[in-house]
Amino acid sequence: MRLLENRHQGTAEDLESIDDIAMIFGYRYASAAVLGGAPATDTPVVDPRTAGGRPGLRAPHVWLDRSGTRLSTLDLFTDGFTLLAGRDGTEWTEAAAAATSLGVKVTAHRVGGELQDHDDAFAAAYGIGAAGAVLVRPDGFVAWRAEDRSPEPGRELERALARILARP
Known about the structure:
By secondary structure, the protein is α+β, with helices and mostly antiparallel strands. Helices cover 26% and strands 16% of the residues.
């Protein structure tokens, strides 16, 4: 408790006021393996219900449908990096398929394509527009996001992966 108090620069009462859900799911990552991370605040956690898919935070849960089977976005983060694109984000999924120069597997999904979002919750939960995309690390944290379309999605995604992986 003393280490957390010193790092937080607060009191034990401040720490006790953080609810369990925020403490378990809302801690922020500040790392070179996260691009465009969460803005600095005076607390080490963010309410995960309002995190908005910001880099440095856990990827939010959203219910989706794949061929009549209900699944969570969290079920998609199983093997390597995962790119989730909005319904108009075909360029991002194509860029992920072509991102092989770093030797890293990137599995891509388009919400509005093979995955359906019947509640229209995905874009808002991840903080992107219909043509945006997020890259989720294997540990389920958002590593990077593009809120909308890019003139060079392949180049932008490769650059993001290279920085996240500390490769030239």
